[in-house]
Amino acid sequence: MSAKTVAIIGSGPAGFTAAIYAARAMLRTIIFEGNQPGGQLMITTEVENYPGFEDGILGPELMEKFRKQAHRFGAESIYEYITEVDFSRRPFILRAGNKEYTADAVIIATGASAKLLGVPGEQEYMGYGVSTCATCDGFFFRDQDVIVVGGGDSAMEEALYLTHHARSVTIVHRRDQFRASKIMLKRAQENPKIQFILNTIVTEFLGESSDGVKKLKAVRLRNVQTGEEWIKEIDGVFIAIGHKPNTEIFRPWLEMDDQGYILTRGKTTYTNIPGVFAAGDVQDPRYRQAVTAAGSGCMAAIDASRWLEEADFEASSETAADQQTQSVSS
Ligand code: NAP
To answer: Looking at ligand 1, which residue's alpha carbon is closest to its atom 1?
Structure first.
């Protein structure tokens, strides 16, 4: 019997870990790397909390190691962005523009994207003072002054986390009402290191570049009620205005929560469609760490591999039953 094909959509830690495990389980393993091969870590600088790298490692370098490890066991990368799927029949169909691929099982590891403000300088200083992850980058702002943008639980959580490193944390929020839960807001309000600037938005990130090294220096703020504008010097800005899971193309097929995260069954990576699994940030609004994504990628490959074995077993039992029926009826 020819090897079954597992298609993995997405090439972050979840996708590549799934690929390592699937390829080692002797499944034909295809990774669709998408528009940002390597995922979110490609826009991170130093990663210090991924176990096994005692001196830290650059995000892009870490992802290259993941890729090489997956390829070593025969997984194959296809540098295409999947634009449409058809999960109504097996093998499943995946389309990238006008190209069509089939797979016996699919692992979705398309991740989530941090929402950004979309103002001048934001992209330019991303990784050079601007961050979307306090757990990843907070450590680099030891005894410095930072801003957290947002008024939800993420903003409160990021701000509280940052107080362990930074000298001061200022939450800049566009309203004077908060989406954050009362308890998280209270914790932030009671923390002496945290201040609030309300009814205010960041309109520009300002910095400088010396010897080719960029560094954020300040932000331009605007009070949305008075229109007053001013520049605030700052060492770091953490944008915590929510994440958006990359699940648009799966909407017609898969059960999701109200934010669009794919729902998985119990402690598994099973979705509502047998043979389709979800791993990493695409199904995890809570932890969102490279190491937790990698862990769930491993789970998805094990789930897919076992599901394929069971599907094979059922197919061969059906064939045996058919043969018996035929021999009875002939
Ligand atoms: P969220 O609840 O949607 O809050 C996003 C915040 O960002 C809001 O205050 C929003 O302002 C602000 N915002 C959105 N777009 C903005 C923009 N363009 N410019 C400036 N501000 C903007 O998102 P979240 O905080 O990431 O939380 C998502 C979910 O995860 C929630 O259900 C939350 O409870 C949960 N969560 C829970 C925990 C926890 O319990 N420990 C931790 C993190 C997240 P407005 O209020 O004006 O819209």
So the answer is: 152
